[in-house]
Amino acid sequence: MATFISVPLKKASEVDLVKPLSKFVTVSYPAGEEQSEYIRAVEELNKLRKNALGRPLDKHESSLEILLRYYDQLCSVEPKFPFSENELCLTFTWKDAFDKGSLFGGSVKLGNGAFGHIKDTVLSALNREPTMDISPETVGTLSLIMLAQAQEVFFLKATSDKMKDAVIAKLANQAADFYGDAFKQCQYKDNLPKEVLPVLAAKHCIMQANAELHQSILAKQKKRFGEEIARLQHAAELVKTVASRYDEYVSVKDLSDKINRALTAAKKDNDFIYHDRVPEVKDLDHIGKAALVKATAITPPLSQKFTDLFEKMVPMAVQQSMSIYNQRKNETVNRLVGTMREATNLCNGVLASLNLPAALEDLSGDSIPQSIAEKARNIVQQGGLQSIEQLIKDLPELLTRNREILDESLKMLDDEETTDNELRGKFNQRWNRTPSGELYKPLRAEGANFRNILDKAVQADQVVRDRYNTHCDMIALLCKPENELNAAIPSANPTKTLQGSEVVNVLRSQLTQLDEMKAERETLEGEIKAVTFDMSVTFLTALAQDGAINEEQLSLSQLDQLYGAYNQRVQASLRKQEELLGQVQTSHQEFSGLKQSNTEANQREEVLKKLASAHDSYVEISSNLREGTKVLSHHVYLLTNFLLECFYNDLTEILLKFQNKCSDIVFARKTERDELLKYVLQPQAKPTPPARPPPPSVTPQAATATTPANIPPSVPPTSNPPPMAPPTQAQGPPYPTYQGYPGYFQMPMGYNPYAYGQFNMSYMPYQATPGQGGYPGAPPAGQPYPGYPQQPPQQQPYYPQQ
């Protein structure tokens, strides 16, 4: 069975996905079937993770399917939740897959595009240094290894199917080339287990040997018997190298026997029959290459059984665009409604200053005008003076509660940031996580906005109190019984002579038109508030087509379509009011000129004006306190951008959500801090020094096929005899004799006992380490040094044909 390098699964710590994701769902989506469905999906996602990571998986396709389903679901979930350090923060702890254990014995198959995906996509999302197993160098090397192994699979399939030898030779030669690239990538790196390097070297030789074997069959078919023998000899030397150096990792006995049998038969036939000259290996034609594999992009879903648990949930880009769109929509609605309400208040104020319609109803001069009586009944129905006084009394308590929530939220951020700064100062560069100060900037900006809202609320509350104090006495008068109210209004001489006059009829007609206009505004306000449109479809379409959402352009265009006509109707209503009020003022001047003027009449009219104005102020103040809208001036309608039924109570709910957000991120940061502390507090293991090479005692020889033994020593003679010249033997790729690779760097000679004598470089003089005993005496000539691994003889190495 072929030996393949497999990557062990990373070990993960327990992570509770249900609590943070469910909290986000409950905060972001209203209670109902949709919210319940998403919470069930969160629980199912948590089960998927436990199935994929919480227990050992069998090496079977079904286990791969579990992993793929979990991966596909993560890809689907990622754009739909605000996963980030300062929003929805989940801390995943992964262990280095190569900490211990071997890479062998598995049948897990991964296309090398997965490692390219990790390198190009995943690593950019990390906010700290990756573990060694997913570092750019490691995943780059693994990608090359998987590419080589995939090519080898095609070679094995072609061999099993008994395809043409020319095809098999090209496939094998290409696989050898890929293995050589992978070997060079990790030759002098320690980011992979030690078993990887010898396996890559062995596979390079084995694939090249297979290429030579099948090419020799072609040579035999073309009656090139000398070429056949040369290629078989080359193949035999390659597998001999593998058997002598890497036998504990890869077995080549069957391949070696097959090559040797073919070589023996070829030599016998050539010696007795053909007598064809056997060429040198360097003179042979290059074997062609056929690459049938390449890195493929990872495009989810990878599982054939994948079903998105959050199919109905829109991506975060759409959710964020929807949030901004809704805010724009609310601002548009508030502007239109506010404009109409301001105009209505202005109209009421003008009529109250003219004592209309009370002046037309008070022609007798000794009874309560009908409009005043209706206003009194309206105030009593709304709770009278006690209702407003209770609302005003509750303001300080609600304000204090909101300030406490905001202060507690910001204090959590302050405390965690202080701890983070202290630990960063203590551990310096080892404290490699995003500083809390940078992470909390959005939350602090949000908190500053809330504090500004509360400060404005205090100012607005004072305006409401002052207005209430101004009209308090008249409001109290309107709350009295009808007989007491009538007695409190001064009497005046009757003006019954005006009853039925033309000016009175004109005024009444004009006031009726104003009342109709106000009623139309109430209907128009309801229509404006009832407008709905599912903007998510527009945003989803834009995201699918362009890969991004131009929220401002799309929102403004849609809002203009939805509210353009309503805006025109509002402006028409304002123009109509301006025209009618002008007519009313003109008619009122004529009416006032006809009335009999005296002191009693003036006093009565002044009281009626105050009563009408007190009613309007009561309605406005009560609405402000209940709805949270503070009309501070003619130009200011809403205190905040929020549509609130009750400003302080709803602000409390919003602040509680802000507090939960702060609490969640602080908890996540504390969990992350504890994990990081475990790492930085671990005793740092001292690196193990490399094994020393045998102590050389002679001058270097040039790296040639055979090494003369009569070179005089260049160092003072010692008791050790000079080393014997190694016999000729094939050698694998770990020991290059030329610098031909782009980006290739030599390892320091002190770390590579096999490199001395190569690259035309001299042996390094031996220097004893202080406190360490010297080397034992040399063994007899030709015998190995005790305690050191046997070094293979050296000869020109073999590489894939370029």
Describe the fold and architecture:
With 802 residues, this protein is an all-alpha fold. Among the domains are: 10-109 and 306-313, no CATH class; 111-295, Serine Threonine Protein Phosphatase 5, Tetratricopeptide repeat, CATH 1.25.40.280; 327-368 and 489-594, Four Helix Bundle (Hemerythrin (Met), subunit A), CATH 1.20.120. It contains 21 helices and no strands. It has helices at 18-28, 33-53, 61-77, 113-125, 136-160, 165-186, 196-221, 225-245, 253-274, 316-353, 358-361, 370-381, 384-427, 436-439, 441-478, 482-488, 502-529, 535-546, 551-594, 599-627, 647-680. α5 packs antiparallel against α6 (165-186), α15 packs antiparallel against α20 (599-627) and α17 runs antiparallel to α19.
**How many strand segments?**
0
Supply the CATH class of the domain at 111-295. Answer: Mainly Alpha
Rg (CA only): 45 Å
Q: Give the class from helix and strand content and strand pairing.
A: mainly alpha
Q: Give average pLDDT, whole number.
A: 76
Q: Could you name the CATH topology of the domain at 111-295?
A: Serine Threonine Protein Phosphatase 5, Tetratricopeptide repeat
